[in-house]
Amino acid sequence: AHSHSFWFPPVPGPHAHRFLCTPLAAACPSGAEQGDAAAGEREELLLLQSTAEQLRQTALQQEARIRADQDTIRELTGKLGRCESGLPRGLQDAGPRRDAMADGPWDSPALILELEDAVRALRDRLDRIEQELPTRVNFSAAPAPAPAVPTALHSKMDELEGQLLAKVLALEKERVALSHSSHRQRQEVEKELDALQDRVAELEHGSSAYSPPDAFKISIPIRNNYMYARVRKALPELYAFTVCMWLRSRSGGSGQGTPFSYSVPGQANEIVLLEAGHDPMELLINDKVAQLPLSLKDDGWHHICIAWTTRDGLWSAYQDGELQGSGENLAAWHPIKPHGILILGQEQDTLGGRFDATQAFVGDIAQFNLWDHALTPAQVLGIANCTGPLLGNVLPWEDKLVEAFGGAKKATFDVCKGRAKA
């Protein structure tokens, strides 16, 4: 409760009784009645003032709840502030201010009515705010100013996310294009290097230089685990093959070793031709073994052809143009896997390495060719007799496709002219 001092104008004068009598009084009351009426009016004024203060506190609490609900409905807080600032002047002056009470008579019936009207207006505005609040918070309702902020924010985030995704896709396409371009450039560089190597060999050896594709041999003079040649071409998946080569062993009858081996990831013995010690020559396909009726222990040149097909695992072995034997069920229905490593002169225990000197080849290899089908007996005989030269359609014997390592050497040699020589 607040203590107030009231000023009463002097009794004389025609206007004094207007402030001392209520509008409904028929005549001016006595002094005691005037005191009771003034006390009742003050109590009613204090009650209205307390009610206004409670409403003000309610408005402040409502404002706090609105702020806590969501930042996007700040407009309601501003509206509440505008409601408070828009009160009639009489209510603003009716606050608990001591100086304002000295400016005019608080016991005026007109001021009391004005306070009542202001309180009702404030109550009506608060009711409308409470009714509007659920619809403004509900984002599924009709479009309203409050949810415009998150809607715009989400739209902006979606737009930025789309731009980022587009940029990532563009960079990925650019990376793929650069990779393809780099691959093509690498192939072109390899072709140029091959041409330069051929030119250098021609200039170094003059007219005696061997000319691709077939006038050379690979020589491995001693048995070890580091001399070999590698074929620089990946094989495709094969359902049949024929492999032919000229061989001259210098093992002294102790076994030819491994003329060639082909390994793929997960299988070191995908295709292996091997003769160890006094054992017969063997053909391994996917670790399955067939013994071949071939004999190469006289240190002379011999032409060898081996044909195989995945259908029933059929195989045939030729020596010097003649069929020496055939069989079946050698890795039947197993296709030869692609993208492996083909080594001449060593047996691979792992992909491309871990050679064993006891299984190494010693001697010369020439005209190693590979086809993706079985050659006819007439074709095999023509190659062996040097009457029908034929290059492999999968792997031809070309200088640029064969690289020597560890001391193995390439030498000028035409097998059909030089096979009778020592």
TrEMBL record:
SMART domains: PTX. Its cofactor is Ca(2+). The keyword Metal-binding applies. Residues 214-416 form the Pentraxin (PTX) domain. Keywords: Calcium, Coiled coil, Disulfide bond, Glycoprotein, Metal-binding. InterPro entries: ConA-like_dom_sf (IPR013320), Neuronal_Pentraxin_Related (IPR051360), PTX_dom (IPR001759). Residues 179-206 form a coiled coil. Residues 84-103 are annotated as: Disordered. One of its GO terms (molecular function) is metal ion binding. Pfam families: Pentaxin. This is Neuronal pentraxin receptor. It comes from Ursus americanus. The lineage of its organism: Eukaryota, Metazoa, Chordata, Craniata, Vertebrata. The gene is NPTXR.
